[in-house]
Design a protein that fits this description.
It is a single chain. α1 runs antiparallel to α6, α6 (165-179) runs antiparallel to α7 and α7 (272-285) packs across α8. The strands form four sheets. The protein has a nine-stranded mixed sheet. Strands 2-10-11-18 form a four-stranded antiparallel sheet, with no helix packed on it. The chain contains eight helices and 19 strands. With 333 residues, the protein is α+β, with helices and mostly antiparallel strands.
Length: 333
């Protein structure tokens, strides 16, 4: 009999210093969007703003989830066509642009394959090749047709915005904080962290990038200010079957977990939705193609961690990064 062992490892990146100066922060932790969300903010109105941000998270969780019948995605997947909100249409268009620019390494129609592996619903299993072959026929972002707010999914395509929704939510919360004059805050979705301003003592936020071999520890730290870091890792959501470990970052071209020597990819940029999606895409690509993509589209920075815990990073964040073992880190030319 096969034994399946499930284990979840979080977070992929985490704040190492959430306080600064003599001022105490307001902080709230909730569960939404299939993760733990922590909001930290400083300022006279911080508590009220965090409450507003919490309601926004729940709203987006409903709207963008493919399991909530009251949202936009569930009925769209069920019926194959339908009208969605301006916001959902905008996010799908944004996602398609990233799908296209990454040649499908990021693909929001991956839902049928994720279902076969049991990553949606956490009923984990290894599908047979025939099943995967049939499910892969439904995976192609080009089967999404959009006209204004009306969307049609061709050839049994199904949407899953899980690879971009947390980043988008982080961007929306950032707007709420800034609109309410919050100048110092941190938004954490576990795999994505947005830093707003500096801490009250004037120092930057210090973010740890998890060690893939022991995610309770960090392998590097990053000073962050008014940017987001999003990480995709092969150790985040995994299960073991017949001695083989399988992770949730699926290559849309093969239907199998990406296996290319990478343990994690972190994207640092101004836009959290973009960082969220690109961390998945570049992980699927593998480091060689990912570096080529970075050089062609380099309005972001990257930290690659390989299976043997070697670190490669782009030059734009050189002054902000620190490593536990300097000899394991290499700057990309």
């Amino acid at each position: 009999m096969r034994r399946i062992i499930l284990f979840m490892i979080l977070p992929l990146c985490f704040a190492l210093t959430a306080c600064g100066g003599n001022e105490n922060p307001e902080r709230k932790t909730i569960t939404a969007m299939d993760t733990v969300v922590t909001l930290t903010a400083y300022g006279d109105n911080a508590a009220n703003v965090i409450d507003e941000a919490e309601e926004e998270i729940y709203r987006l969780d409903t709207e963008l989830s493919r399991s909530n019948e009251n949202g936009d995605i569930f009925p769209l997947n069920k019926n194959g066509t339908g009208d969605v909100s301006d916001e959902t249409a905008y996010l799908i268009n944004t996602a398609i642009e990233i799908c296209n620019s990454t040649d499908g390494a990021f693909d929001i129609t991956i839902a049928p394959v994720m279902d076969s592996w049991g990553f949606f619903g956490q009923n984990y299993r290894v599908p047979d090749e025939n099943e995967l072959r049939e499910q892969l026929k439904k995976v192609n972002y080009k089967n999404i047709e959009i006209k204004d707010n009306n969307i049609t999914l061709k050839d049994n395509a199904m949407l899953d915005l899980g690879g971009i929704a947390k980043g988008y939510a982080s961007d929306k919360l950032t707007e709420i904080f800034k609109d309410n004059n919050i100048k110092s805050a941190l938004i954490s979705f576990g795999s994505a962290i947005q830093a707003i301003g500096k801490k009250p003592d004037g120092s930057r936020w210090l973010i740890g990038i998890a060690d893939p071999k022991n995610s309770d520890n960090y392998i590097a730290t990053l000073d962050l200010m008014d940017k987001c870091i999003a990480t995709s890792g092969s150790y985040e959501q995994v299960f073991k079957e017949n001695g083989q470990i399988y992770h949730h970052i699926i290559d849309p071209k093969t239907g199998y977990p990406a296996n290319n020597g990478l343990a994690s990819v972190s994207i640092i940029c101004d836009n959290a939705a973009k960082a969220d999606a690109l961390s998945t895409a570049l992980f699927v690509m593998g480091m060689e193609k990912a570096i080529e993509y970075y050089r062609d589209n380099g309005d972001f920075d990257v930290v690659f961690i390989t299976d043997d815990n070697k670190i490669y990073y782009t030059s734009g964040i050189k002054e902000s990064l620190s490593f536990l073992n300097e000899e394991d880190a290499t700057e990309l030319a």
